[in-house]
């Protein structure tokens, strides 16, 4: 399934031409099958067919109509599931109504994808025609996949002589492989096109909906069988499923021709004239009646409707300057979205990755931890994702623990007060040794100001990435000229040649270390010298707080607090060396947690985060030029980030 918002499809493309061409072969085949069906019916006793049709009783009609209603309840849920997965913002009721109407008309008129697209475009005001066409194609492919899985399961339980057992086994094996890919490699590239598999919870709903839909449709036909046909429902179901699929793939109106011929071929011992009479009655109940109701719904619908809801948004105008923490500047990298609060306020930085909706760091709105947790949970469930907190602070994690979530302490944020930083502190002996080594090598540290040597920095970043297995992403910045211009940058020179640089996210509340990039020529202690120079400038500019960002807590310190699986996952981030580097500054340590409603959620989200960090999406900077941002640094007027209640809660967690 292509993971792209339906409304963002290119309007100048003409995919319906390709759809028409692809429909040509099935339609041509359908015409041939209709001809063969006419020849087959001509050899039967038409009076016997008419008599069998007239023998259908009122109770049979009523039961068939009830089964049809059940089938179309499931039909409407296809669109609901896909709108949620694609995050179109369309309400469930509107999605279900348009989906039932589109399928009722398209299965009767033929050319299902194109007909369904026209209906959906007509009934959903905010959906473009190209977006409706993409959605209709996705619904069709999703149904075929779900039908194939359900039909294979039925065929294994009730095999047909005409279908070898290896076919349903191969289909179920492919379905299992798809599930594995959804967990371990949800982002694929096929034929040069990026494809993102839906989350496992949403993916599992498609076969279930297909089962309810087609089983109810088969029940509608079974209820209409004349009395002279002694056929159990379990014997009819596998033949019906294959006939239904043949009619769907054929693309003719109602699958005429393919459905009948396949059903007759798979049920050779059933009297054919009464069976065709039941099929005629079935077409009246399952195709004609829904089509009439759908046509009425289409004609009475309006192109004017309520706007979409937007629980997540990409923003670059968020008030990063006054955010509670400087890492909010990660929004400028384009990897993250903002979870909306009341009146469009920003609640938290979030990202949708694999099976998880991940909230990164503390909340963006002070005092809204419980509300942010509730919104995160509701939106994740609505999109069939698992909510997850990554590097949450004590207050947010307390709210999660009160809600019954599983919580683990895995990180600690290194924090310093620039005005109180003293290099002569005995606890910073290792830092002083590193600085002496760097100075003895002739290292010179300079603040870059507004003029960045992009070419030299690019070379250093490329060399660093080669040595370290590529750039990281998601919860940490990546080298990009547009992104680093939103930061404060320090450069390290040896004999007027740049050998390293460090960048810092800054706002009114704090400075936070982000990128650290060194060349092979950089002497030992270079990064220590870069951070120390930034610390000294932060003290001069009255910065209230200086953060070295979070680091994984050493394994020995968290072994009793975490599970073995999550611990092994975290070790791939190289936490030991990073922790030791930050510890040399003798900072205060703030606990940072991960949290999920279940332990399974912790494991699955751990995989998603590790994948997001080591295989990040392409960076998309906002172009916000803030290289002079540091001139606006001021002491926050909103007070400390944690009150006494929050500090007490933090002690309780520890």
What layout of secondary structure does this protein have?
Layout: H1 15-42, H2 46-54, H3 58-86, H4 92-109, H5 112-123, H6 129-157, H7 166-184, E1 187-190, E2 193-196, H8 200-223, H9 233-250, H10 258-266, H11 272-300, E3 312-313, E4 337-340, E5 346-353, E6 356-360, H12 369-382, E7 386-392, H13 394-402, E8 406-416, H14 429-440, E9 443-447, H15 454-467, H16 481-484, E10 488-494, E11 497-506, E12 511-518, H17 526-540, E13 546-552, H18 555-558, H19 564-571, H20 575-583, E14 588-596, H21 599-614, H22 644-653
Parallel strand pairs: 6-7, 12-13
Antiparallel strand pairs: 1-2, 3-4, 4-5, 5-6, 7-14, 8-13, 8-14, 9-10, 10-11, 11-12
Helix pairs in contact: 2-11, 3-4, 3-6, 3-8, 4-5, 4-11, 5-6, 6-7, 6-8, 6-9, 8-9, 8-11, 9-10, 12-13, 19-21
Word description of this protein:
This protein has 654 residues and is an alpha+beta fold. It folds into three domains: 244 residues, no CATH class; 98 residues; 240 residues, Gcn5-related N-acetyltransferase (GNAT) (Aminopeptidase), CATH 3.40.630.30. It has 22 helices and 14 strands. A twelve-stranded mixed beta sheet has the order 3-4-5-6-7-14-8-13-12-11-10-9. A hairpin with a 2-residue loop joins strand 5 and strand 6. It is elongated. The N terminus and C terminus are likely disordered.
